[in-house]
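Hi R.,

Quick one: here's the Tc1-like transposase DDE domain-containing protein sequence you asked about.
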Amino acid sequence: MRLRKAQRRGQWEKEKGNENGFIPDASLLFSTKSQSADFHGDMCAELFTKWFKDSLIPNISEPSLIIMDNASYHSKLTEKAPNTSSNKEEICQYLLKHNVPYEPTMFKKELLHLVVDNAKPKVYEIDEIANSYGHRVLRLPPYHCQFNPIELVWGNCKEFYNKNIGRNNVKFDDNHVKEIWTESLGRFMSEWWTIEKRFELVQPLIIAVSDSTSESDTDTE
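And here's the predicted structure, written out as tokens:
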């Protein structure tokens, strides 16, 4: 399963899918007043978590591997470690909870060093929710979207949408946006979700090294 999101001219959309195509009854589409091209500000961890638990989880088979990136609203921690903005009492409570010995006379800077030295593995709320329902979350490394087949599907959906929004001089409103976006989603078959299909469309890059180039490199060395 792959998660992705996009702002479509004043509307915010989240879709998801697997080898069978987009998952029915698990869409999130709402209007936004933001004029910014950066749609991330329209989504928050609370809204994403509610959608994840109430709309996505009930519509996927068990067990599922859920692939997602590390957007901030995907990555709310179950417990956030103290930082320089925390007061001394908060830091001490954290250390006490995790059985890290400290001296009450320590300065805040010293206490923070103890926090860093005894750092716990990050645990994300979304991952815990998925685990509780028998699923698992796989997080992509930063800047490696090529490992997520939804990028191919999403790009084609957006291309169709951009070419057809406002066609035939139809009044531009929320209903028209939803109609065209729904149509764009329906155009792509399950085969577009398979990793094999994605790499079939990636043309191999072959660099031919001539004899003269090799000799030149050798001379330079």
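Confidence is low (pLDDT under 50) at residues 1-13, 201-205, 212-221.

Cheers,
M.
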